[in-house]
Amino acid sequence: MTTPVRVGPYSMRPAPRALVVSLALVAASVALALVAISTGEFTVPVADIVTALFGQGTPVAELIVSQLRAPRVVTGLAVGAAFGLSGAIFQSLTRNPLGSPDFIGFTAGAATGGVLAVVMGGTAVQIAAGSMFGCVISAVLVYALAFRRGVQGYRLVLVGIGVNAVLLAADNYLLTKANINDAANAGAWLNGSLSGRGWDHALPVAIALAVLVPVCCAVSRPLRMMEMGDDAARAVGIRVEPVRAAAIVAGVLLCGVATAAAGPVMFVAMAAPQLARRLTRSPGVTLIASALTGAVLLTAADLAAQRLLAPTQLPVGVLTAAIGGTYLALLLRKDRR
Amino acid sequence: MARLTGSDLTLAYEQRVVASSLNVEIPDESFTVIIGPNACGKSTLLRALARMLRPKTGAVHLDGSVITSLPSKEVARRLGLLPQTSIVPDGITVADLVARGRYPHQRLMRQWSKADEVAVASAMAATDVTSLSERIVDELSGGQRQRVWLAMALAQETPILLLDEPTTYLDISHQIEVLDLCADLHEQGRTMVAVLHDLNQACRYATHLIVMRDGVLVAEGEPAAVMTPDLVEQVFDLRCEIIADPQSGTPLIVPEARRRARTPVAH
Amino acid sequence: MTAPPLAGTAKTEPSAATRGRSAVLAAGLLAALGLLVLVALLSVALGARSVPLSTVLTAFTAPDGSSDHTVIRELRVPRTILGLGVGAALGLAGALMQSLTRNPLADPGLLGINQGAALGATIAIGLLGLTNPAVYVWFAFAGAALASALAYALGSAARSGASPVRLALAGVALGMVFTAVSSAILRMDSQAFDRMRFWLTGSLAAQTSDVIIRLVPFMAVGIALGLLLAKPLNALALGEEAGRALGVAVGRTRVLTAVAVTLLCGAATAGAGPLWFVGLAVPHAVRAVVGPDQRWLLPYAAVLAPVLLLGADIVGRVIATPGEVQVGIMCAVVGAPVFILLARRRRLAAL
After folding, report:
1. Transmembrane segments in this chain: where (chain A) (predicted)?
2. Total domain count for chain A?
3. In terms of CA atoms, which chain C residue is nearest residue A267?
4. What is the pTM of this model?
């Protein structure tokens, strides 16, 4: 039991570990952002970053900071947070780490929509629209197919895996039918990448987060209760259906908007909530810590993707998969209970 | 008029009607036990009374209002439920799980009041799980875990508490322990409603019995008045003798020794 | 709530019912074999250029060197044999994995084994510049073996042994890492990417009979071993302790099953690329029909999986004439709806 903070009729019960972990994650993402913006082929001292952002620096520093590096970093942070939140929501709803959007077909739906746009030579906006559209369609499809006297977590995962398979096959089909250049572009996009992302990529994700994070905060406690089963949640006064509907809509939108900006970056949505849970040692899924973990994970991976094999630039999705996969494997190895 | 009533209820899952035109009244401050053979609709009735299941026709009333028209949190401050199956979140401690019962008393800006703390502490004391408070629920025995769930329902501090087969999966001493605890809660002034399988336990603890078969309310009233050999045969197809429980004086069902090894109820 | 068990009466004549069921299941298996032969013949006859079945027969009885006969002998027959072997291997491997892990989601694709094989091939083609399939299949094979060993080692690291969820998580994690490394290699070499994108989709068209002959022994041994494991796996299905109580050597059964799975998945993936879904969908469908008895489940899966694979391959060849749709795509398109239907219709029969 933790010490509560009470002021008059108001009281909070902050979990100290979760709070410390969250602050550390915020600090880590700021530090990563500064490193990513200041270092590289052209070094911009940290002190000059702010002046450059406000248009007071040298033209070169301004170009590099405001046009190239900052938007990429912001996109990375926002996309990572969105994937982390989306994954936390669906893992909580399905009570299953495999229930995250990257496995039950939502990310794949977004990917197929995006690839279709890439192969047809679409513009950035069309690609984003395609993946947003694909994500919503696939989510509706998965839920419709899994619906049978309510949606049960296990059945949702199974149906999602089925839909995922068809979508992956569709991606592959599009790749083999396209000419080699379009196929290579689509292949790169399918890995998930932050390279060349500008403010127009960052903005939609940031807006989505601004709107949907409050929604997530509102459903966070009811969602935790619902992890004990619908009846137990209803018994303590939770209106299960509206909470579930709001959570699903928020999760799908976050997944869609994130994929639209960065492509189907695998694993962040699955790994971030699992990592966050272990870092905060809290029971069940924690939404805000998952979002922060996602942001750190993706930004760190992007930094590594740019620098590791320089001058070869790896797509960030390759790194998130490699880092996230290895870490999860290590956790499984250590996690002897 | 009792606080919790159901009138003209038709209860169904999808198209399968379990019970129709059911009228039921839970006497205030009673320990009501619902009994009946398997699949008679007793758990369904309990779920309807706890607003887990919306009746096809008719309505459940709580304090005179249709229960589904009341805000869900408001209902949860008056009426608690121990569901038959709940899922233990991974890695949760006893104290944290019990604290979740305080949800209906909390708000965004009032997350952990003094009242919450007292309620949780006394719920854990009442169910004798205080010494387990930092243990992981997953690692407890079945009996301990059931006591923890009960503590969570108690922490909700509702004047009415509904329990769906609270003794299932428990051994005999834990069954008695849970029922004794329910009797204590009843004596403290709570209205208790439980679905039970064991007729003798039902007779011993209940102040009011509701006997069901095939979705129909066959009899209700005080155990001593209701429980007759004819009723048992009518409801359970079991011939028996009824004697006074040597400990409590309540009805004790002794099945007729017609065949070898025939028990009154499965489980 | 279940009805109380009825005493006496019903249990007097179980053996007759069981015998009757066995007869039905045996007849069903024969029918499935018949279906397999039919599909195999169709696979030889149909394609971008379809030939009548009589020509198929004369291609073997009296080859005249005509182009039809050449196509049949050089392309269609090896392709069909590959389909038979890969299908049987994946179906059986999926059934074995689901039974061993007691995880209904176990599948060579989900547990990272196919991705391991793909990584092996990618290293051979992309890094080492090998172009001869007869050489790079060995890398794929090694990758599959490594992946299944790793997945199992990670999944079983807990004291309690390999729990289903752990195993699935471990497999997914490994699959991700393998795929990531493969992608990184392919990013650096666009020629390799061009070659690999067809193999990575899963295709029966990519291999010569030379390669296929090298794979057949592995598949044959894996299939034989897998079928022999039916009885101990039946006992293990009740749980490890129940299995041990029934006298099953739990450790040995696990190791042998893992060996069989590795042989089957490695050979299948090396031959046809990382196909998935066959190993997941077919055992589920079979289990829904024949029940959980491994002695029937395993042979049924081994016979019906190639029916699905070859059927999908034929459809892929016919609908896109003169080109073709890769069998990996067709498998997902054909198998996924069946799988979703099953997931909807029932609580998937317990393992």
Report:
1. 73-91, 103-121, 127-146, 202-223, 243-272, 313-332
2. 1
3. C176
4. 0.80
